[in-house]
Amino acid sequence: MTDRAPVRDAVAQRTDVMMERLAQWVRIPSVSSDTGHAVDVTRSARWLAAFLRDSGFPVVEEWPTDGLPAVYACWPAHSPDAPTVLVYSHHDVNAVIDEEWHETEPFAGVLREGRLHGRGASDAKGQVMCHVWALRAHLAATGRRAPAVTVKFLIEGEEEIGSVHLDSLLARHHQELRADVVMVSDTMLWSTDKPAVCTGVRGSVSAALTVSAARYDIHNGAVSGAAGNPLTELSRLLGSLHDESGRVTVPGFYDQVEDPSARERAQLAAIAPDEPEWLARTGTFGARGEAGFGILERVWLRPAAEVTSILGGHPDLPGLGVVPATATAGLVFRLVPCQQADDIAQRVREWVEQRVPSGFTFDLDLPASRSDPYTTPTDHPAFTALERAISRTLGASAAHMRNGGAAPAAQLARAVAAPVLFYGTGLLEDRWHSGDERVEVRALVQGAETLAHWLAALPAAMARGPGGRAA
After folding, report:
1. Where in the numbering of this chain does the Peptidase M20 dimerisation domain appear (predicted)?
2. In this structure, is residue 263 part of a structural domain?
3. Are 211 and 105 contained in the same domain?
4. 333 and 410 housed in the same domain
């Protein structure tokens, strides 16, 4: 193993300036779900485009969509025969609820005690910054003016609203996005102390179910005891979503699900936390879920269904005293390999149709912005190189992990016709989609070093072929 000092030093020399640039970017409130912030999402794209040009990318373009803009960049390799890497991530951020932020303002971009605070610091502006940082460190350590591989970026502006125009973007720019490997940088690490490489993500199907019992709200004194109550009926239906063992009751939900192999379970056992550690890191009060599986197996290897919201009645007007006309719930179904998002969406519709009784009507919205699960081919040489780069940075062999959330990995794999790898710098403690989001500077530093090693090693790894063998 060659000396890692040049890369480590190159990363360290840029820490202060990279964190300042990240803080500047975090201060742009690029909330894609709020039309009032559409101009800020555009500002974010333009900030990123300018930053990439300043960082040396010879090709940088802002790509408009029918919604919010994406940014494309390309830095050709020093050799025309070198492989090409496409890095995917996003620059839009989730909405904020001001009263949930106690440590800083949501878009303050404050660096404090080894963490940068602010919405998007971890999800996912920090992760994008990490890749730029790695590329600059790779060039500094090798003394080259061009990288060992061609590096392309596709940073979209609509991930937090379901990547609604990603398909059209991929189709329209098919030629520019050609690559040998796709790197999704919108995922999590296990920790900064235990090296682990992500081998896949779950898929996702979202739904909004509205149950109605009347044309309008009715004074409960007039109908109480004789009229249907949509809140009661919706609660009954949601309560039947899982059985006593924690399994999802949608018929056919598990038809394509295979139990984890002994090897997969052993790999997760190498990093599995005890329950108190898990509760402390996630801020939850208890571990629940499908019986017969450990915590990480439930989150990474098994499908799941969650209720994300319930709306109905008038909690702000308790004296109104009505039976509400409607009640709505948000749901998310997480999928594992062999499950297909379109199939699960249809099964959920059939389940609702069978469960809502007469006297009620329902509307089930199943948005088309859903994702299939994806598993990286772990015998691919780019994966082997990433595994070794992680181990090299942290000084220990890398375990295997998954990510419980979703990413458009299957979508990218189909469009680009290339395998997808995952490397992110998020941590459980980063509070994605919650108040007081932050990113660990240490995670970004380790990420930049890891990715710099990976870029340098990739041409030789790809030439050798699967498992490091000569191609």
Report:
1. 200-357
2. no
3. no
4. no
Give, to the nearest 10 degrees, the angle between helix 441-464 and helix 125-142.
60
- The backbone torsions φ and ψ at residue 63, rounded to the nearest 5 degrees and listed phi first, read -105, 110
Give, for 451, the enclosing helix (H) or strand (E): helix 441-464
Q: How many CA atoms lie within 13 A of 180 on its CB side?
A: 18
Tokens of 41: 């999402």
409-432: average pLDDT:
96
Looking at the structure, tell me whether residues 10 and 141 fall in a common domain.
yes
Q: What pLDDT digit, counting tens, does each position of 220-260 carry?
A: 889 888 899 999 999 999 999 999 999 999 999 999 999 88
- 188 and 225 in a single domain? The answer is no
* Same domain flag for 184 and 307: no
CA 401 to CA 199: how far, in whole Å? 6
Cα–Cα distance between 120 and 43 in angstroms, integer? Answer: 14
Task: Tell the residue number behind the tokens 């101009």, with chain if given.
Answer: 39
Is 353 domain-assigned?
A: yes
User: Burial of 184 by CB count in 10 Å (0-12 exposed, 13-18 middle, 19+ buried)?
Assistant: buried
222 and 352 belong to one structural domain: yes
Residue 119 and residue 101 in one domain:
yes
Region 185-202 average pLDDT? 93
Q: Quote the CA–CA distance of 72 and 61 in Å, as a whole number.
A: 5
Same domain, 245 and 140: no
Q: What is the pLDDT of residue 464?
A: 75
What distances in angstroms separate CA 419 from CA 108, 307, 374, 378, one per listed residue? Answer: 37, 32, 10, 10
- E-only strand ranges, 161-260: 181-184, 196-201, 203-212, 218-219
Domain that holds residue 354: 203-257+303-365
Q: Is 269 a member of any domain?
A: no
| Residue 471 reports pLDDT greater than 50 | no
Give the helix ranges, DSSP H, for 35-174. Answer: 38-54, 125-142, 166-172
Number of domains in the chain: 2
- Average pLDDT rounded to a whole number, residues 173-192: 95
Instruction: Say which residue, 353 or 321, is predicted with more confidence.
Output: 353
How far is residue 347's CA from residue 343's CA, in Å, rounded to a whole number? 6
Question: How far apart are alpha carbons 352 and 379 in whole angstroms?
Answer: 41
Q: How confident is the model over 81-113, as pLDDT tens digits?
A: 999 999 999 999 999 999 999 999 999 999 999
pTM, rounded to two decimals? 0.93
| Residues belonging to the chain | 471
Contacts of 350 (CB under 8 A, 6+ apart): 251
